[in-house]
Amino acid sequence: MAVDTPVREPVTPPSRTRARGVLGSWDLLVLVALIAVIVVGSLTIDGVGNPRFYRFVILEAIPIALIALPMTLIVITGEIDLSVASTVGLTCSVMGWLWQAGVTSLPLLIAISLALGAVLGAVNGIFVTVFGLPSLAVTIGTLALYRGLAYVVLGDKAVADYPISWTTNMIAPIPGTVVPWFVLVVAVLALLFGVLLHATPIGRGLYAIGNNAEASAYSGIAVLKTKFWLFVATGMVAALAGVFWTFRFASARADNANGLELSVVAAVLLGGVSIFGGRGGLLGVVAAVALLGTLRNALQLADVPANALTIVTGTLLIASVVGPNVVRMARGRLRRRPPPGERTQP
Amino acid sequence: MTAPTTAVHRVFVVRELGIALALVLLVGVTFAVNTRFLSAQNVKDLLLGSTILAILAVGQAIVIITRNVDLSVGSILGLAAFATGNLFVSNPGMPIPVALLAGIGLGALCGAVNGGLIAAARVPALVVTLGTLYVFRGVDYTWATGKQINAADMPHNFLALGTRSILGVPVLALFAVVVLIGAGIFLRSYRSGRELYAIGSDPDAARLYGIPVGRRVFWAFVASGALAGLAGVLHAARFGTIDANAGLGSELNVVAAVVVGGVAIFGGSGSVYGAALGAVLLTTIGSALPVLGINPFWQRAAVGVLILAAIGLDRSLAVRLARRLRGGSDRGR
């Protein structure tokens, strides 16, 4: 959405330039904020220094962290996937339904879930790449569709009679620590996506697509194929988050993770990824997930009412785009930027 | 000049007729299955149910036409609804127009915050309104602190707004009609209304042409906020019970209604009439399914299919239009 450029000379929409310009190290800034919250929190709020506090923060942050990984890559290519939370919900429903239907093998349940996630992601990918429809609109559609199917599959029932060992194992700590072992899964995936994004030609291609999809296509990048597989990957990771969600709360319900999509998008944007694509990195996003989770829980311990905490999330999000722009304007227009790319998005 | 303009115009007429036709078809089939679907009471319920979504959709359409989006409308609705209830609690004798003005004013203020940030700090609307979605809702929660305002706290004649009809048409729906016609005339016949389309088609070109893009976008957000505020007051009148959760999660429904109504998600085309029809269609599906003997759990899935079908249809219309503007032949895509 380029309502924002000044009148006289053509200038790139500012949020595109924010990672490069004023705060070349947005990642660093978010990391510093995270450390500051941890230090100040443990000094001033009773309980924040406690290892159990972090165990809770981590458990809460895992689904958002998981989905934020592929979402980062998607947003960098200039697309978005708002259907992720509904994918979580549908996965939970199908798992609950299968369990009731007598499928009691855990590996099979997980395999079916991941396959389902891949299919749901592929549906998004086909609409976006084959039919050329805007992902924002498509995934609002599949957000309703997948959540609707979740209700069709399971109704308003909750399936909660999983073996205790499954549900406790899912949130069990790494032996000798308080850190839930599932963090390792997140870490491995973060590493995978991080290497893919920052250390491979495919990753460079994602930035190129986000900056100018047409030019990337002419320079030999398989734009549509790349986007398609990103949607598939997002669906699979969201399904994995659904598996975690089911066992973490020992409850498969159609409304699981309702509204989570906006939390994920908020974390990705706060992490420094430009909504127009082409800018941002995975480190900043992971730090942003941790920052939001820690801040929320710390303030909760400080008796700030849970619901009012959304003000903090919102303010951080707005500050993350407004702040750099204001600083940039204040510094004056030192550099001339290349003319804006033709693709702009809401 | 007239040939392309006519072609463009025809496509949009077709688009709105299409959704009207879908609505007629849905109502017709449902009526054939059960004639009570069009009983006076049920029609009234349908209109009442569509009103709030339609008003939100009109505001959202104005914003989306400028190639922006307003995700904060659900939170603004909640805030305005609670404010209205709260005003009645502290001033029991307050006249209804004052309540309406207060809600609209509060909504406009929230919209001005959105528009101001977007136009002045030059930041993307999706990010800003996602942020204010959280902030406005948080303010609402903090203000309400778990309190709930009940019908008993509000005057009778205010609540009657939500139930009373004039000639069989619910008063609430009349609000939506007035808003719709007002916005429709403005977008169609006023210079600044047309400029909103120009901005949405190509912001850079609009700027070069001399359109005050920032100012127009600012006022589009103020309008969207004001309408969300109005929707909040009407929500209070209709439901009588308000807590801080009013309108929670409705933002994507509103965008869905607008998209189903044929407003292009990247701006520049569509009309508020289409958006309002989209809102009515989405609401009607919800009440038609049980009558048709379909499990109501299918409702959301049906809405999803409808959204996908609508954007697919728009895409094929756009491709056909582009072909026709190029001179008829099938070159290119």
Automatic annotation (TrEMBL), chain A:
Any transmembrane segments, and where? 23-45, 57-76, 82-99, 106-127, 133-154, 174-197, 228-250, 262-292, 304-327
Identify the species of origin. Answer: Asanoa ishikariensis
Q: Which PANTHER family match?
A: ABC TRANSPORTER PERMEASE PROTEIN YPHD-RELATED-RELATED (PTHR32196), AUTOINDUCER 2 IMPORT SYSTEM PERMEASE PROTEIN LSRD (PTHR32196:SF71)
Protein name per Swiss-Prot or TrEMBL: Autoinducer 2 import system permease protein LsrD
The protein's matches in InterPro entries, at most eight in alphabetical order, are given as: ABC_transp_permease (IPR001851)
Q: One GO term of the cellular component aspect? A: plasma membrane
Keywords associated with the record: Cell inner membrane, Cell membrane, Membrane, Transmembrane, Transmembrane helix, Transport
Q: What is its main location?
A: membrane
Q: Where in the cell is it found?
A: Cell membrane
TrEMBL record, chain B:
> What is the topology of this protein in the membrane according to its UniProt annotation?
Multi-pass membrane protein
Q: What is its main location?
A: membrane
Which keywords belong to this entry?
A: Cell inner membrane, Cell membrane, Membrane, Transmembrane, Transmembrane helix, Transport
The residues that cross the membrane are: 12-34, 46-65, 96-121, 166-187, 217-236, 248-266, 273-291, 297-317
Q: Which GO terms describe its molecular function?
A: transmembrane transporter activity
Q: Which GO terms describe its cellular component?
A: plasma membrane
Show the InterPro entries listed in the entry. Answer: ABC_transp_permease
- State its location(s): Cell membrane
Task: Determine the domain of life of the protein's source.
Answer: Bacteria
Assembly and interaction partners = The complex is composed of two ATP-binding proteins (LsrA), two transmembrane proteins (LsrC and LsrD) and a solute-binding protein (LsrB).
| Annotated function | Part of the ABC transporter complex LsrABCD involved in autoinducer 2 (AI-2) import. Probably responsible for the translocation of the substrate across the membrane.
What's the name of the protein? Autoinducer 2 import system permease protein LsrC
Give the organism, scientific name. Answer: Asanoa ishikariensis
